[in-house]
Specification:
Blueprint: H1 5-16, H2 20-44, H3 53-65, H4 75-102, H5 119-138, H6 140-151, H7 156-163, H8 167-186
């Protein structure tokens, strides 16, 4: 089920104002969008596919539901918050996988989605997270753009809407951030 940005915004605001029935309509719409975001990210991480799309979506959804104090401004704001949550989920998962390998822990493989597990991909994701954290100290806006684009799968227009920037400015900042992160990750 796909909802228009306007419909999602209206449902988010109604839910934020205490209308629980709007949540029933919102959930399937948001769930399909979260699946798309998770699938896009996990597709890039094929060699490290120990998470299923449904795992990421379910956990992100549960954490988003706990965000009751947030006053949702619109669809883009919601998915910007979702991108932060997805980033944290994926980084925590990567760290847990590496810790398990160092401790000699057993690998848990899903028999429906068995693939070779690559510790290098976990290291790369953690390295990206560390570089992104350093970037946030230097330039929080660039860091948010990377987070929303890379972890949240948001378009430049959606990011611009959240940050109050033109899509061209978002693209320029995205390109600068990518170059800076690439340089940092080579160190």
């Amino acid at each position: 089920m796909v909802g228009s940005p306007q419909q999602i915004t209206e449902l988010l605001i109604a839910w934020g104002n205490g209308d629980e029935s709007s949540l029933e309509v919102l959930v399937p719409i948001v769930e399909s969008e979260l699946k798309r975001i998770a699938r896009n990210f996990l597709r890039r991480e094929q060699a490290n596919r120990t998470l299923l799309t449904s795992d990421v979506v379910n956990e992100a959804y549960l954490r988003l539901l706990k965000q009751r104090e947030v006053r949702w401004q619109n669809r883009s704001h919601f998915f910007a918050v979702a991108s932060i949550i997805i980033r944290r989920l994926l980084i925590n998962h990567a760290r847990d996988r590496l810790a398990g390998k160092r401790a000699g822990g057993e690998l848990v493989l899903n028999t429906q989605d068995v693939e070779i597990v690559s510790p290098e991909k976990n290291v790369e994701l953690i390295s990206l997270d560390e570089a992104l954290t350093r970037l946030a100290v230097l330039d929080p806006k660039k860091s948010r753009i990377v987070e929303m684009r890379f972890f949240g799968g948001m378009t430049t227009a959606e990011i611009g809407d959240v940050l109050g920037m033109t899509p061209a400015s978002v693209t320029r900042q995205w390109n600068l951030a990518k170059a800076w992160l690439a340089q940092q990750m080579r160190k």
